[in-house]
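Exercise 7.
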Amino acid sequence: MDISVCVIARNEDNHIEECLKRLRPCKFEVIVVDTGSIDRTKELASAYTDHIYDFEWCSDFSAARNFSIEKATNDWILIIDCDEYLENVNLLDIWKISQANPEKIGLIQRNNPYTIQGVKSIVSERIGRFFNRKYCHYEGSIHERVMPIDGSAPEYYEIPLTIYHEGYVTESDKRTRATRNIDMLMADVREHGADAYKYFQLGRNYVSMNDYIKAIEYYEKGLTLDVNPKDSYVMSMMESYGYCLLEMDDTYKGLEIIDKFYDSYSFRADFVYLAGAIAMRRGLYDRAYSEFEKATNIHIFNKNGSGDYRAFYKMGNIWEIRGDMEKAREFYEKCGEFPPAQSKLSGMKDSD
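Solution. The predicted structure, written as tokens, is:
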């Protein structure tokens, strides 16, 4: 299958070589568009592709994306960022699926590392990155999205392709990026008007800055608009909103939003775990236990642990609160090497 991988880059000499190296076995056409690097980005990229182009940065990510797409010689386009590394792909299956969905947008799986309670884990998400340029292009100056050229609502299908997102690992990087993104998003809102997706992205960036009050403000604006609960970003917005409310100890509003979306999202362990966490903070231990138990029987999740060790740990907490230390020990032992559970078990041994 003839696929062009389009990459935009700026000062990415710490990522781009690994990114392009992972693509080489697939024999993709690789297009690299540089938006003003002053490091070795272009030099390193030249070892993997001859298709390197300069683009004068104009504070518009879609403009840069669409420029890269124009430079491709193939109609089928895969978008990858420099800090994203190909992990798994089945090109034969992609060819078969895409032929039946030429006007739709292919969702790839992106695995993002994160640390929770001392445990390094992965949160997975599906993002639209594969499409035919005859039917789709990019829109939005910041947090750009693949959209149909004819203005219709986007339709999606999943393809067997997984990437690992190394991302911005330092707090300084996160804050710098979030500040830039917020400025660009607000400029976009002023120029083109607001919508739920822009509010979602504003909320996400405020979460990156640990400003939960502002994140809640924009999530609430987004969720009060006419949104489709089936859209993946709406699901993410609702769950992130719930965790922000938990951070601010606003559990009354948290349960209200959980109950509002329960029928739509209770097929996901992440959502049911969140419902349990909010109920537990409210002191509603029977409901919390029921939610955590339900989560352990759900196999659809984004965050590792939502359907097993993190839920078991919370169930152990509830048995400990109830004074049944043997039951608590039983559930802590189900958590494997989860450090908080190991700490609990160690404390129990010391008290024996």
